[in-house]
Amino acid sequence: MDRSLLIVDSVISLAALGAILVLIGAMGREPSSVPLKRRLRFGLVVLAVLLASRVADWWTGWGLLGLITVVAAGLVPLATLLLTEGLLRRHTPFSVKVFVAGGALLFAFAGLLPDQFAEPWRFALLFGFQLAGFAIIAFLAVRRDRTSLSPAENQAVDRIALSLILILPLLATDYRGLFPDIPVRLGGLAILFLCWLMISLGQRTVSHRDTLFAFVILFAAALAGGWAIATAFALNETQTIQTAAIVLSAALFGVIWKDSVTLRTEQRRENLLVHLAHGDISTTAGFLDGLQTHPLVEGSLLLKDRDLADLDPALLTSLFDRLPVAGLADFNRNSSMSHGEAEQLAWLLEKYEATHLMRVCRVPLQLVALNMPSVSVTPGAEAELRVVQRMAQMISERGSVPAP
Question: What is the Cα 98 distance to its own chain's centre?
Fold first, then answer.
């Protein structure tokens, strides 16, 4: 392979591999006991192995990597079918199962054949098998019975079907042996778009229209970037297409990474709401213990009256009556804080290496020391912390009650 083509194809494939790993990581924070998630994880692992092995094969030419690439490529339609069946909650026709399973088995054996005997017919058969498999699965997804699925399930199936429809025209570009004039393999871009659609399923406020509109904006920006670079450096048509593909793949990977961070934040807030709704509220200690895995109070330290014996209780009471949650930032934005209050707050924060202190019980005074540098610059997280503080103090003020 020409070195420039090798570099371009490798960059796009590695961007797609990175996106898959980000998506698998996002799934790893959720329970994996759900069969649908196991099917999705299996499909993502197959794609990751395919991308990693073929990039390594391009650069090394090691025969075992070529075998792994062929076997993984033959498994892709089967993994897609398993995921589609899980989403549709229906078995696909038996003939379709035989086709994709038989094809996967065929290419597992075909991968063992030496290249001089297997090519080019193995390459052509693999392309036809994948193209037919994706087309059949996309048809089944589009023609499904929408009334048998919930709105969320229909949305998931729509995004899978959209990805498959996008993959079909881009699939041919991955078979340069059949189409030698193609300037860049674009299958990685289809995988990047699939990962973007999948990770956006966790963001309930993101609609199809928002996702598609964002993709159009990214695509237009990539074309504009490719044109600008091509014009500035007098690139030819092939180099312009390759440049635009690299820009688009990098942009998609960046968006997927950002969306994974947003998804983690949403999951953290959802976990907090679940604990507020269903957690132990029999005692303040029990309520806080249930939050120990939450980033807001993980590693928190409960300070009781004996830990505060050397301080002025009147000053502390006055301070935390006004600021139930007090931190380092409050020194600058609360001019009403007296010198004595500021001195005692600073001493507590320094002694317990904390960034925040929150009152969880007024009488007797009890504080929780927290070390969360990010909270001071994240208004949403600080609001969550105030919710936790108010809930903990309400529990302490009403005393012990039977758990619901």
Answer: 33
